## 1
Amino acid sequence: MKKSAALFCALCAIVSTQTTQAQDVKSTSKFYVKVTGSYYFSVFPGQFPKVGSYEPHDERLVYNPATGASTTVSEKVLTGSYGAGGRGGLSFGWNLNKYIAVEASFNYYRSKKNLMTREETTLINSTQTVGKVESHGYVDAIDFAPGVVISPGFTKVNPYVRFGMVVPLWGNLKIETDASRSGTATVGGQTVLTQLTVHRNEKVKPNITLGFQGAVGVAFPIAKKLDIIVEAEYRNIPVRSKEKEVTSYDETVALRNPATGAVISTQHRGLDDLSTAERHTKYVTTLDQSSNTPVGQQGAEVSYRDDNKPANDLKSYINIGGLGANVGLRWRF
């Protein structure tokens, strides 16, 4: 009788243990949704790509009207990264067991604006600006980031690591350029002042690429099925250019009376007035004699070997990864 009772108690203990384990697996193998907001900092800044014919430099020049020569008085290389900026994400996850989960995230990212090039020319022995070109660029992107999450499975404060890939789904480098130049011209035997102003927006489309993500985080439960998430994340996403399009363009040349400053006449060029080569660019790894490159320039108008075909330029590379801090909420279902 005692043996039977002991055997019964042992069976009950085994069944109870198995039931508890099954309930534990069931309780952790659940779907969750996470929303996060992040800010990323540049980690490995590099030299920015060229903006048309302008190098990524901040250059100051002086112009001597007596000789017609411009002299560089200072110049520095502009460096930085498109990895600095804000990001918002929506993640869907599934706990395979108490310790491992798989996760898929969709993120929208926008970098801060970066100064890509600046060239300012002043009249010799004065502070009067006679020419200036300045460009700023920023990145808009949407990516898909699948990953694996590993944790010790603590019920209270639960640390974890997450790692995986980053697949950009959509994105562009957008460049805004403003330029101006003052000078003189002879019209009908009379000397007049000229004032050129240009505003241009460009969109650089990338090639398909893959990146890497890795994060260390902590989950703090604040309700039965709600956690606060705090993470430190590193992303490395190299991107190379594919093609570029001028999306808006406004160019005005004003002729002014040198005595009164009154406008004599104006000339205007808009987006529809640009040639195919001025408006579209295809990036290549090598430029040679068959490439569609510039052959001349008059004012802001550039002529190419074939104005009716897209221009060619060398591929450029940027990185939209960085080191960031993520804060969010996770709902467990």
## 2
Amino acid sequence: MESASLATGVTGTRISAAPEVVTIKRVRLESVDIVRGAIMIIMALDHTRDFLGNSGLNPTNPATTTIPLFFTRWITHFCAPVFFLLTGTGAYLSLRRKSKPVLSRFLFTRGLWLIFLEVVVVRCLGWQFNFDYHLLVLMVLWALGWAMITLSALVYLPAPLVTAFGIVMIAGHNLLDSVRWSNPLWSILHTPNVIFANPQHTVFVGYPLIPWLGVTAAGYGLGQIFDWTPERRKAFLLRLGIVMTAAFIVLRGINIYGDASRWSTQKSPAFTVLSFLNTTKYPPSLLYLLMTLGPAMLFLWAVDGRTPRFLQPALIVGKVPMFYYLLHIPLIHLLSLIVCYARYGHVYWMFESPNLRQFPVTPPPGWGLSLPLIYLAWALVVVMLYPLCRWFSGLKQRRGDLWLSYF
């Protein structure tokens, strides 16, 4: 049974023989599931804020934000990098039970499936609740799909070479920041922009492929450490997390390379810290990835070999990340419909295509809940999804149907 990040999970096989029967039990690496599940839960906070918050307020702009709002957005920065990293990790671990040709075919078809889900299912039934295609924004599943398609070719190379490809792409892509090409291919690869527009339709690339492809390739290399002894693996994760986090602090402090947006002194020391942490996600800069993946390695280290009781819900969600992802956006959108109707007596604007300045929806005047209410709505969404995730996790554990590996 396969899944990584949003698409590839980590399973192994344990066979116990008896005179009459052979029983097969699927075993997963719980540390990977816990980390993936935790970021999935956090991701729902960002999307709850998208729909129920004030979409006209930039939460990461130190000049206009508040400290609680900034960190509400900042904590969700960890989600996408870990998605892509663990996609590669899960792909490598799949080699325990798949040949490279079989894995390559699976990654290729899964990548196409993710792109379809982005363009059709998530777009129409999640973000926008319409089928008019006045606006199509190519987001995380689009990029994750292409990352898996790319990895379907890279798996034929030695793992160290794939790792080097990923690291070079992550560390070096900011050298391209000064390139200003106004063509669709460059927008797809590096700079978010409109790649198609006419009076009726607009296509916008929100997740350029560089360096997300590199993060996935680096994650593939990371999968090698799960072949090591637990002691060696934990020591490596601890060192890697510390080095990456320290590298972020040092390079960000130098303020020369690694991010197109420089930090600057603000109106108070606290807001200067916000400027320091306000790295670029679109496309993800070197510093953005060091800032997020460094602590993620420390999280993997902390939960390697143990599952704290309070993280049990994250463990369940992490086993069915695609299922969770496909449900949480329409659920949040539906919740926003209820709130909107209760407040205004109408919900028509929830079914209109948004403009690019107010994505994902164009709200009426005065729309937006307070931050505590957004957190309350987020908790409600997670609590509602948990029983469904637990049921689907059990279904995947009991059955090995091919279609289940695509959800």
## 3
Amino acid sequence: MKSSYPTQESISAQLERQLQVKQLQVSALLEVTQAINNNLSSDKLFRIYEFILRAQISVKRLAVFLQDEGIHCICQYGLPEGFDPDGVIDEIVKYNRLTFFEDEPHRELDDFDIIIPVYHKDKPLAFALLGDVQISAYETLDDKIKFIRTITNIIVVAVENKRLFRKQLEQEKLKREMELAADVQSMLIPRSLPNNDQLEMSAVYLPHRNIGGDYYDCINLPNGKVLFCIADISGKGIAAAILMANFQAILRTLAKVKNKLTDFVLALNDTVTEITHGEKFITLFVGEYNPETRELYYINAGHNPPILLDQNGFHLLETGCTILGMFEEMPSIEYGKVDIEHGCILINYTDGLTDLENEEGNTFSIEKVMEFIKDNQEYSMAVFNNLFLKKIIDFKGNREFIDDVSILSCRFK
């Protein structure tokens, strides 16, 4: 009678085969870790992963979905023609643990037997769908799935780390660019403003997140007149700062060659339109003051009207034209003229001031601006602006600035 017990020879053969399986798994892990250490791209890492599962582990069907600004299929093989990866996304995101589908039939997932989700805390990183996993006589399904799960986690975490590292580099690069842009922008803002027997000026500039699109300037013209302006470039960030830098250069050049204020603004509009192709706009208030005649000529190009306070009360300087850069040819343009009294005050500002909200949702309205001007008109413009800045910060409380805030204050002596 033959013995039913396995022979020593068969036991040795089984152990040898099991050892070969383990060696194959160790080799696969070494291949993956070496690829990660060599900083191969995410696509190449998944090609290696695909080869290991197909050729070495005998997984006949595979689809891997990666979370990266949305879920998308990063690799697949062995699936029937016409398989639509997008058609299973709504189903796979329901799973947060390894699941066998044998007791959970899903029409969308009929081609697969197992799902392996990879999570970091509550955030899904990837989903691996497996179908027709082949098992030899020398291994168990549980052991094979554990290994597939391990290698899937290693690959997905490595790819996620690459993504986070790239994001960190991009953020650092953007931070350096923003710091450089802020430095350049600060050079364009006048370091000093007139404070003499004719004119006293002071300014406050609070760029949104250290860089913005507001601009103000004051230029002494060859004919003894003084040209001053305040502007607001649409948008925020680096794009607005670059346009602001170009605008400053253009404005300063044209100010020296255009004698008429209307010609000056029309030339500004032509250049802005040519540069921005109608995709960016600039609101502008520009004034030309003659200290000899005490006449102020101005054009308001869609900007918040500056507030003039004289003996007769408040006046809003609104006359002008449309926003710069909106039309290749200005539909119409006109200038305003004001006879300036001794001691009157002109407050120029951008809409970041009057759009500012406090914690109750109330805005810093133009009425509040006028009230502040009336109550603090006796101070020097520097002190006036410091008090104004404190008033603004107290008003907003814990609310963030949502836009650049610029104030150009002027007293005519």
